[in-house]
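Bench log, entry 3. Co-assembly request; chain sequences pasted below exactly as received.
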Amino acid sequence: MTHLGCSLLSCGVVDDRHFEMEDYQGAIARWCPGCGDHSILTAMQRLLEEEQLKPEQTVFVSGIGCSSRFPHYMKTYGFHGLHGRAIPAATGIKLERPDLDVFVTMGDGDCCSIGAGHWIHAIRYNVDMVVLLLDNNMYGLTKGQTSPTTPATFPSNTQPYGSYLEALNPLTATLGVTNASFVAQTAEWIPAHLFETLKAAYHHKGFAFVRILQRCPVYTEKIYEDAVRQPDAIEMLIHDDGIHIPDLDEIYKNQIIHDPGNLDEARRLAEPFDRFRLGIFYRNEKRPRYEDLRRLPVRTAEEKVELLNQEFDRYAV
Amino acid sequence: MTHLGCSLLSCGVVDDRHFEMEDYQGAIARWCPGCGDHSILTAMQRLLEEEQLKPEQTVFVSGIGCSSRFPHYMKTYGFHGLHGRAIPAATGIKLERPDLDVFVTMGDGDCCSIGAGHWIHAIRYNVDMVVLLLDNNMYGLTKGQTSPTTPATFPSNTQPYGSYLEALNPLTATLGVTNASFVAQTAEWIPAHLFETLKAAYHHKGFAFVRILQRCPVYTEKIYEDAVRQPDAIEMLIHDDGIHIPDLDEIYKNQIIHDPGNLDEARRLAEPFDRFRLGIFYRNEKRPRYEDLRRLPVRTAEEKVELLNQEFDRYAV
Amino acid sequence: MATKTRASSEKKKGPGKGSKKKGPEIIRVPETTVEIVSDSGEGAQKCGQIFGAVCAKMGNGAWTVEIIPAEIQPPARSKAGGSGNRVRFGTEEITNWGDATNLVVAFNEQVLLGRIELGALAEDAIVLLDNKWATHADEDIQKEWQGGLKELAKHDYRIVEVPMEEECLKIVEDPRRGKNMFALGLLAWICDRDVDLIRAQIAHQFRRKGEEIYQRNVELMEAGYGWAEKNLDFRIEVPTIPSDVPKVVMNGNEAIGMGAIAAGMELCSMYPITPATSASHYLSEVYDKFGGVVHQAEDEIAAVGVAIGASYAGKVAYTITSGPGLSLKQEFLGLAVMLEVPLVVVDVQRGGPSTGLPTKVEQSDLLTACFGQHGDAPHVVLAPATMEECFHSMITARRIAEAFRTVVIVLTDANLATGVQPYPRPQLDARWQQAPVSLPPVDENVPPYDWDPQTGLSPQRYPGQPGGMYTATGLAHNAWSKVAYDPDSHQLGSQMRSRKIAVLQQTLKPPQVYGSDSGELLVVGWGSTKGAIEEAVDRAQAEGLSVSSCHLTFIQPLQPGLKEIFSRFDRVMTVEINYSDEPDDPYITDENRRRAQLAWVLRASTLVDVDCWSRVPGQPLRPGNILKAIRQRLEMGAKV
Amino acid sequence: MATKTRASSEKKKGPGKGSKKKGPEIIRVPETTVEIVSDSGEGAQKCGQIFGAVCAKMGNGAWTVEIIPAEIQPPARSKAGGSGNRVRFGTEEITNWGDATNLVVAFNEQVLLGRIELGALAEDAIVLLDNKWATHADEDIQKEWQGGLKELAKHDYRIVEVPMEEECLKIVEDPRRGKNMFALGLLAWICDRDVDLIRAQIAHQFRRKGEEIYQRNVELMEAGYGWAEKNLDFRIEVPTIPSDVPKVVMNGNEAIGMGAIAAGMELCSMYPITPATSASHYLSEVYDKFGGVVHQAEDEIAAVGVAIGASYAGKVAYTITSGPGLSLKQEFLGLAVMLEVPLVVVDVQRGGPSTGLPTKVEQSDLLTACFGQHGDAPHVVLAPATMEECFHSMITARRIAEAFRTVVIVLTDANLATGVQPYPRPQLDARWQQAPVSLPPVDENVPPYDWDPQTGLSPQRYPGQPGGMYTATGLAHNAWSKVAYDPDSHQLGSQMRSRKIAVLQQTLKPPQVYGSDSGELLVVGWGSTKGAIEEAVDRAQAEGLSVSSCHLTFIQPLQPGLKEIFSRFDRVMTVEINYSDEPDDPYITDENRRRAQLAWVLRASTLVDVDCWSRVPGQPLRPGNILKAIRQRLEMGAKV
Ligand SMILES: Cc1ncc(C[n+]2csc(CCOP(=O)(O)OP(=O)(O)O)c2C)c(N)n1
Ligand SMILES: Cc1ncc(C[n+]2csc(CCOP(=O)(O)OP(=O)(O)O)c2C)c(N)n1
Ligand code: SF4
Ligand code: SF4
Ligand SMILES: [Mg+2]
Ligand SMILES: [Mg+2]
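Structure output for the full assembly:
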């Protein structure tokens, strides 16, 4: 928590504020009615309330897309940057200000298409942040173009006769990257599961990647229709170290016991794209975090001048 | 092979040329003495000779880096483009001219760092080409900066006190991407294995990704030193459907029988970065290829004018 | 002051004022502007599109502009949430969106107020307003409605309350999905539109939705038509002049797409971005049958890279994007210039900087189009001004790209992209299609860059040509495409790449002056503002002002003769949709004033003191505002 | 004509000509240029670096330039493969690399011939050449050697064959790893350099290699010194003037790195690219102890994104790159302008376009630095001209970035980056370090963009400030950072972002004129060409020509007073290292001539007919060539 930039924080008075859900509500959400993003927003506000995060110590970072409007709807600090580039900005924020809680929301185009390079590398860096992929399997904001996660043969405005390729599986892709430390999947229409997953992600120290299956009634209504209606279409990964919500046992009867520590098994389970498996696929807190690897000494201005003068001595005529 | 752009080809005379190795030799290679790229160049020229590829029907595409000088040293067509962007250029060439044989050479910075997004997506597209990662675990051309595949703690000019992160494993990353169809690893200092791997890649119909362990005596001399000296450091993946060079059995006694059709196993075997496992990890010719999915009708100019006039009719006042 | 007329549903409010029998008042005008505006999702855009197309098909000149809300899904009944379409049509050709709306159909009073705040309505506009809100179950809404009416009363509008909801409910259960067709019917009767044409256009719009939907929509339209006939006491007549010239009507993005097809290009490599994407939607639908493909790449960099790879190997390919995408493509554009690989880039400009105003018009990418690549990378920039020029610019662009082996950037904008205008149907030429690629063997003594030392031109060489093997490289190279770091090779290569553009310049014609050849003020423009500028000039001339205009198609290289033309006017100023400081702003001096982008280019090129008047409203410029600027500049006196 | 002197190894060729007893000829000059050139890998660069540093440390003015081969690993003994260093040093300050070399040590005749072809040598140069090739086992090489000597004989050089290999073999087994120190010894004796200083410098160079290597290198150096003493009959004397001003000597990239540290910046987020990378190498080595980090990102886009994220959240961060990287960063630069997040970008220019000449100097990124972002994105561009200015520019850049909440691009180039020059040791100021970030609570009624309506300035707000929560957005927004698509908000935001730059301009001083205040010709330059231009002006004035010069530090905004200054000269021309067509080239007219980049900016800004003389040799410009251009332009007569 000590950091040059925020020295004032450490000498602050005791903070006895209590925050309600409303304290986290920013502008009125302007997503379409029935858009899955709404429930993600609610779950997030619940999480912040439950964790009593200070609004001013929390930053939401996003790219461009429907999903990337997220920061505007939170009453925290926000950074609504460029399409595909949420992660570099978030990395900069966290490197400069490790005292802040950083959340990233991205769409499937944002994260998996234009942002793919940053995504892969961020998994490696394993900087401590919560990273949400709001996956509606389509480019929403630009009005319906095929995304990397669009299922094969599903039509869009750029591939009107059906998507050419099999969908990219964000879970296996993430799990393929060395230093992955937290990979989970949840669905926005199961609020309890969504909430618990966000919470687990928040408590993970490292890069916590969560793919959220998200309905877009405008462009991809059909895709999650069955999964929403038929709980049997869903397979819950449960484990003592994972997520297990007993209340849901009655509804979601397909359960797989999976130890999030098992990478091989995680990859195997993540493989089929057409199976909706929810839960924590992988978690490993022992992975090195980039920011820890380079924690630095903090110097006063005078010390720095002194040190720089020593440098000059080396170059003196 | 039929294509608008090259109709002249189809009405050519019978081609009875025979090509020697020299026929594939372009400018004199300007890599450092002892650079592993030299032997890759030789193996490639051998392959072209063995396959009797027509120089004019072959295109080498690269980015920027030591390894990316490759096209200049071949006497074929070449495209030496931008750092990290070899794959999009190669994709364009192949989409426009399916009749050409396309080879891509990239460095580890080129492919896995700045080019990571294209790499991931190219695996998905599965366009038919041979893609070589010349992995010297370092930025060579720019004189020694840490690359994604630099082993942890190995020093460079940008991380002089040792690389911060564990190396990215290009094999698991590739195998994590949906639609991967050919993934192999070889080492330039084992010419026979290198050659057979290139050959298998060439004969694969689809995106054939080969990581070549490549020595850079200038910046990363130490990294492959042991593996070069001690054949026991190497584990050969062998299989009837894979690569098996009986002549090498005596030298490389560590052998793992691995069926390249087995994806789970491929991922498991690819996992440890510090083990030098060579062979074909995965091969699947049944994966859809982007260019096949969108094969198009060929129209004459007159037909097109006719069709466009029909379009105008729809918009007529 | 127009008389306020309140028509209302007979059923509810009893018989309307005055008897309808004596026939409606006929408002006969040479042109009018009609607007339909609703909450987003209520279909006002479709209604407007059909109406605009029908106007064009009936032989009127027309120009439509989309009204796009700021938000993805703005809340219902919010001022900023208005969505719809604005159609200006007239007896003669219509070249721009005009100043203000004369007739508006609004689905609620809030979106109407939003439009009024933006200054969209003429002071004597006729307003048709759904009055269901007066009796809405929610009292707050009733109050808003009352407040809204009070607000409206401050203006001189002629307001007609229409029971749209009520009438539609007779036909459909959910009037949100039908009111737009009812409104279409209203407009059809008022403006005396051909009902058969409307039916055909409805059929086209809903071609993928099946017969039932079509029927219901027609029924709704007819209901609106009937209601208007029964209840309204005015009609607007905009005569048409029959014409023998066959015409087509489409928006600029469709024109770009068709132009690309007509130019024989077969690979559109793109990444979605508003407002460029609809061009690729169009192409995706039809390209297959032409043997063309739309490749949606993983990002803009890959998109242009794929296009360049294809151009290197065969036919000229192109990429379509908007500002942020153009920024990302710059490195690759420099490569194409260096490799002398032909490439066409369409930049459909939107509001900037950064993500800016993604759906709105602006002309602020001119300088980045000219100078956005690092190093000296000479290439071509041109800007069509109309839907028709959008079409033809693609044919020109391909030809220049190929003949000069260079990059051609075509600058359009959101105004052209989404606006609709009829124009003479192009005569297609099969030669435009011709594949340039043949693969004859190459004489080994001819280098791959066989530059003509005078012109810098050289023929392109393609993989597949026996004996011609070479490696294209972005490094400095000599004619043999060998890496060459010596001073002479780099100087020569730079010279050859520059010379080509000078040679192209010599083939261009001076631009035409619109209006008198000399005078007090010359207004210079480029791109989609042409119609508005010329209309303003017409009006100024009618006022007796000494003003002409001149519209540039080529920005790089510039057309010849500009200095000479400018010298004939006391004062020259550009009118552009980008940002410039006003001369009298605080802290602004002649030295530090940020000038509009074309003005900057013209000053450097001609050394004439080219002034500018520019704005960034996220909307097309209005002729009336340009006229005001003209008057004001003339008052300031001569400056050249 | 200098007399040719052939010294040779006593052992082999018997006693040298003439007796050494009478003491060597002393060539006393105010300055001289020395060059050492070898195959790459033979260490000539290190030798030159040490020699240059020693010259500076002895109190001479100095300027060094790296000689870099075109290839990664050029073949041995090839003309294009020469690698080394060129050191110009003098009694007074030396500001540029000069025209030609007076004394050269070459390890083989081929690299020497390569240098001669490039015009590097003065016609009366003294050449010391390893003669081992005369007796080489390979007959072809012997023949080459003979041919080479014949070639050399055509010039007026004073050639001294030195048995370098032979002498080195007495000390080391592999002379490839030692000849450079022997050569250093030769030069040390010839130029009478302080041997203790040399030893210290060798110790510094090989500080990581251990005592043994140090000892061996010193021994080799001393052997060279001794050999020269015994065999050579001339020495060169360049007096030093003792000075009280403490000085430091370093290259421009080190100066940039130290400047960043002095400016209190702590995050350098970069991606490797020549010739920028060495700055981050320097920083990577020392930054830890200052609490700073070098973040090597996955690509240039991420690099600048990380910097912007950090700047948004705390202290100004910076990114260092070269042309191709700048192209990739453009989208993010536009975002920083829009968010008003301060950011410093260093662009170490190299030859373009595209990958171009990665190791060589050019000044061709000026326009893309100014206009490379889509949309209207006003920001600052400045260009240091010397190593000293490199240092101070980082402090200025941070302050402007912060005070004006904008992007500052610092343009240096490969000439500054790798060249070495002594300059007065900066007096550090602890206030430069000060963290701007404090996190007091915010009054909820104050918007995050609390623009002063006059100046456009507003204080930055940081995460962590209670009550100040807002979302920074690249979309058009109002003062509250709320997305706002209405015309007024966008116009206002654009205005505020532009106004700041105009305000900055008002704080700048007019540039100084070097030489007379008025006259026939004013030469205008920017960046690393300053020394060469001023030297050319000095010489021209000495010839009686009426020439002055003027060097600009700020390119955007431009410094005030330019038009006024220009008006005092008959003719104004820029001298730049980028491409321009010559006025008399085929097809080139005044209308289509591509002009050098600063010339273009100045024309637009001042409307003065600013001419240009520019070249892209991949080398610094020579004062002699600039002088020629001055003479030629003066012959053409007045043009303004
Ligand atoms: C550089 C750039 N390219 C393209 C765009 C246009 N664009 C905006 S959002 C978007 C994709 C939206 O899809 P996704 O990321 O899946 O988010 P969603 O809207 O579905 O939540 C695109 C292509 C842009 N703003 N910037
Ligand atoms: C856009 C861009 N960024 C950076 C560079 C500088 N650069 C050239 S090669 C290279 C990396 C070389 O490393 P690698 O890809 O591993 O290839 P190698 O030289 O090791 O074969 C870099 C960073 C560039 N040319 N272009
Ligand atoms: S378009 Fe889809 S993703 Fe976007 S707001 Fe509407 S429902 Fe949500
Ligand atoms: S630096 Fe390394 S990779 Fe590059 S040519 Fe030399 S040995 Fe090969
Ligand atoms: Mg999406
Ligand atoms: Mg490498």
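Chain B has one domain: 22-312. Residues 1-12 of chain B have pLDDT under 50 and may be disordered.
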